[in-house]
UniProtKB/TrEMBL annotation:
Gene3D superfamilies: Toll/interleukin-1 receptor homology (TIR) domain. PROSITE patterns: TIR. Pfam families: TIR_2. This is TIR domain-containing protein. It comes from the Bacteria. It comes from Reticulibacter mediterranei. SUPFAM superfamilies: Toll/Interleukin receptor TIR domain. One of its GO terms (biological process) is signal transduction.
Amino acid sequence: MMDERNTGQEPSRFVRDKAFISYSRSDAKYLSELHAHLKFHTRNGMINFWDDTMIKPGERWSEKITHGLQSAKVAVFLVSAEFLASDFIATRELPPLLTAAAQEGVVILSVILSPSAFKYSPLAQFQTVNVPSNPLSAMTKGQRQAVWVSVAESIKEALKLP
């Protein structure tokens, strides 16, 4: 799908064909676990995802994040109190992804990492991967891995071409 955005510059053209992963840096341990569960699928061309760990030194990080947001067909939110406290996430990542969900059908996948004010957030309108009363922080490693498998499957399903 091609789309255009007017940002005051020339319209950019992009395809929504990736999963965008949004997280708080304090939750990097969980991002690493998710990466492990996505690796098989990415190696086999079934999942294409982006997160800020892919920004290389010297690159314009703001442009890279904007491109990641614009190419998202799936938005994966790793939700914790730190995630909800992040002004950057609240102002730069959530609004465009929630708009894209409403207007373009971007799939929203929230993974509840730890107890937080999630039920008051704009993400609460979307079904979560795991129930907020059972966050990953309260799970065993095996239980967390089952959730990550579910996330990978959900991403893979959402990225299928129509």
